[in-house]
Amino acid sequence: MTRQHNxxxxxxxxxxxxxxxxxxxxxxxxxCPGCGHGILHKLIAEAIEDFGIQDKTVLISPVGCxxxxxxxxxxxxxxxxxxxxxxxxTGYKRANPHSIVISYQxxxxxxxxxxxxxxxxANRGEAITVFFVNNAIYGMTGGQMxxxxxxxxxxxxxxxxxxxFHEGYPLRMSExxxxxxxxxxxxxxxLTDAKNIAKTRNAVRKAIKAQxxxxxxxxxEVLSGCPTGWKMTPQEAKTWITTDxxxxxxxxxxxxxxxxxxPHEVKQENPPPEDYYHLLNINQTLKEExxxxxxLKEPFLEEIKIAGFGGQGLLSLGYVIAALAMGHAYEVSxxxxxxxxxxxxxxxxxxxxxxxxxxxxxxxxxxxLIVMNKPSMKKFENAVINGGIIIYDSxxxxxxxxxxxxxxxGVPATEIADTLGNTKAANILLLGVxxxxxxxxxxxxxxxTALPAILESKALRDVNIKAFNYGFTYSENMx
Length: 479
Ligand code: SF4
Known about the structure:
2 domains, Rossmann fold, alpha/beta, 7-stranded mixed beta sheet, Pyruvate-ferredoxin Oxidoreductase, domain 3, 15 strands, binds iron/sulfur cluster, 17 helices, elongated
């Protein structure tokens, strides 16, 4: 529904109800009275509505008081790690060049922990729009000094005032960003009175329009009141912005190349499907020619944890399982995790396989645990679901799992692999054990055909195939 401009009403790009902590409030927000965030939210929401870009806008919220921006904006939303909004925005925008990506950040998020992120994104000229709320303090965490805290300004961490010899000078981010070549538009505004709010409104629109016109990186800094952090009334806070904050952070346009900058060429949104096979190292011919006799149709989710020492091929085993499952046209995820030592330290990976979309790649309670050392058995045994499976290298783990409610299969995989020609094939031997146990959704004939193409090491290919067959037969004999 189009907003009527002659009456005050909430833009349709805001949700009707602001839900927070289970409380539904139609009119209020979680922001303090006199806070500038609400005003800036409204200016952005109105611009999105007026430009008709709601369905392609993604707002990235930061860590800080505006962390809950996604409770308000009825757009795509991502909440990023502290200071990483420009990196997240970069990834999203590059994958979806026709989207409108708005990064919304405070001074702790953008000018402290995320200072490098914002400078690099600006310097690359990422085609995103950044709104930077500068209220010269850390509001959410109780009023500590921010990089933008003024000299002599008292905060909970500078009770005698910010001292230039101890804490340095307040960072002027607009000026810094404007010195870079790539940004196309940089302006600082303030939310003090109707006139300046109107100026901010124009800046918000210019910055978003710059992105719509594919002109490149745009940045608007907004001096905004934090009555709570400043320990002032809302009116005092507005006055302080005018008398103090804006004398150091002077409002104005710091860069405007909008007229002269050529639009960026929008690259192809996604690679053509045939490229996926190449990018993911999948044998396309194999996939196209093979007809699966029985891909499981009933909903299922297999969650696998594979753990042991680095160097045992555990991450590769997870990758191979994921690749085989993907070859069956299932949804898959593969998430490696290893310590600082690439070899010798503990390592594990999580694999999920499903015939519906996977929300998170994390595996906390595996349905299958494949484990190749004692520390990992100790760490993950109790996480396996009731009725799950533990496949372990019984040559390396001499104590079988104590769980009685799971199926435990001990195979001296490393010893057997040694007799087959190479201990490094132990991981694929365990794959054979696993594939036999999971033949309700993994097709043996497909695996036999696909495995040689998926295995990366040509030198180990023959011994790996032998090991797979050994493992497959091993578990078959157990049944
Ligand atoms: S602490 Fe400050 S910035 Fe945070 S919501 Fe309250 S007034 Fe706004």
